[in-house]
Recover the amino acids of this structure.
């Protein structure tokens, strides 16, 4: 539904704001390529005296290079920069100006509904970000308590967007936890950017529906191959032949997981 790639990030201790300081996943869907993020979405970073958490990567408020200045170009030809086009009406940027993050963009979210403490976090909120006047990221936060435990769980949320120009943003999303097989499914519902016939032809050309890997099996295979290579090959042979093939397999299967999320 209009996204280029996905980053699934695990935060065992959470992150700011304080109500999100607990174990959770961030599902970050980007409308730009990884190369664009790495090469263009860069900025001058605040030093530790300007951030709350030492080492935290936050863009400085004053930028003198084009890439850095692009973080602070907000979509829309409006005098009032809130609300932001293509975001829920209530979304705003933090008043402390700590919303621009390298490779992620200038973030906005529902400031009025931040959980004050971890126990108040009971939904699946989204954060969104812009860069150079365009929407670049849609990000859902899923607390670990919603996708773990001894019972099945299903949690969902909906939003509507202000002055929508991007028609493929999801209006409903959900986290589904199946206790019987410890499977977590992230579900998105929205207008497709690819018609069913075109999708089915692309799927057939790719050899069928993607299958999410069992990483326990993959890493066991990788470890076994590395062990065998250590016994029979030189360091150069290990680097050139043995390690590269399993890693390329893993990368291919991870991309399959992305397709499952926003094609099904």
């Amino acid at each position: 539904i209009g996204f280029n790639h996905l980053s699934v990030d695990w935060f065992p201790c959470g992150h700011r704001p304080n109500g999100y300081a607990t174990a959770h996943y961030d599902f970050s869907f980007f409308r730009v390529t990884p190369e664009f993020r790495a090469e263009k979405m860069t900025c001058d970073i605040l030093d530790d005296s300007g951030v709350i958490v030492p080492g935290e990567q936050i863009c400085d408020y004053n930028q003198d290079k084009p890439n850095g200045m692009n973080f602070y170009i907000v979509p829309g030809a409006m005098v009032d920069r809130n609300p932001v086009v293509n975001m829920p009406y209530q979304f705003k940027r933090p008043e402390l100006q700590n919303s621009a993050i390298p490779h992620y963009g200038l973030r906005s979210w529902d400031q009025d509904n931040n959980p004050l403490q971890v126990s108040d976090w009971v939904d699946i909120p989204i954060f969104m970000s812009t860069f150079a006047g365009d929407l670049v990221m849609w990000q859902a936060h899923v607390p670990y308590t919603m996708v773990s435990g001894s019972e099945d769980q299903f949690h969902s949320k909906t939003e509507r967007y202000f002055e929508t120009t991007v028609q493929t943003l999801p209006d409903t999303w959900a986290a589904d936890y199946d206790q019987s097989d410890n499977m977590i499914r992230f579900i998105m519902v929205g207008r497709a950017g690819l018609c069913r016939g075109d999708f089915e032809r692309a799927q057939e050309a790719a050899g069928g529906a993607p299958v999410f890997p069992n990483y326990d099996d993959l890493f066991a295979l990788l470890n076994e191959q590395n062990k065998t290579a250590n016994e029979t090959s030189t360091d150069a042979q290990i680097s050139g032949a043995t390690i590269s093939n399993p890693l390329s397999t893993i990368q291919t299967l991870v991309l399959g997981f992305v397709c499952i999320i926003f094609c099904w």
User: Anything to note?
Assistant: The two ends are 10 Å apart (CA to CA). Residues 57 and 101 are 6 Å apart (CA to CA). The beta strands are 5-11, 24-30, 100-101, 105-108, 126-131, 134-143, 153-158, 172-178, 183-189. Confidence is low (pLDDT under 50) at residues 236-264.
